[in-house]
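Hello forum,

I keep getting stuck at the same step: I have a sequence, I want structure tokens, and every attempt I make locally crashes halfway through. Rather than fight my setup again tonight, could one of you with a working pipeline run this one for me? It's a single chain of 177 residues.
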Amino acid sequence: MRPTNENIPGEPTRPKEDSGSLQRNKVLTLDVGPVISLSFWVFFGWIVGAVAAVCVFAAAIVWFCAADRAWSVVPAGATVVMAQGAGMLAARPWKKRHLGRWPMAWLIGRGVSFLGVFAAGALLYSTTRPDPLVFGLVTAGAYFVSLLAEVWAYSLQVKESTGGDVSLGVSSSESGG
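Reply #2:
Ran it on my machine without issues. Output:
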């Protein structure tokens, strides 16, 4: 019997990639668009402004209905500001990224801020013992409005960074159009 090299381990052979799979991989990458960084302070300023507006509006309504419960608005607003600040720090807007990667960073920040609402809410609720209805409603409303403000701040910064041209660099033939 002749010895063969079939059972001797060597370098694994890799299948050859066809040009179609290379083209598909190129379209699916997130490294599209210009490389930009965004300002933490612009985001945080819009968030704090939105939360403050909601809290002033809510405090006026609560004051009119039951003045002794109006102070519950303050820990609710602080909860949202703390949670959104943590989410912004997790997203690291000062880091330069391709425009296609920014939505993923934003989603990471939103996950952190969503968990932060529960953590900061539990902390502030247990230490201050505000009215539960006012605290919960103002926290939910302020969080929603702060998300809208954050998206607005994102769009303003992207337009400013790209000069209004937010083309992702995908031609119509690659995207199927």
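Residues 170-177 have pLDDT under 50 and may be disordered. If your local run keeps crashing, start a new thread with the error log.
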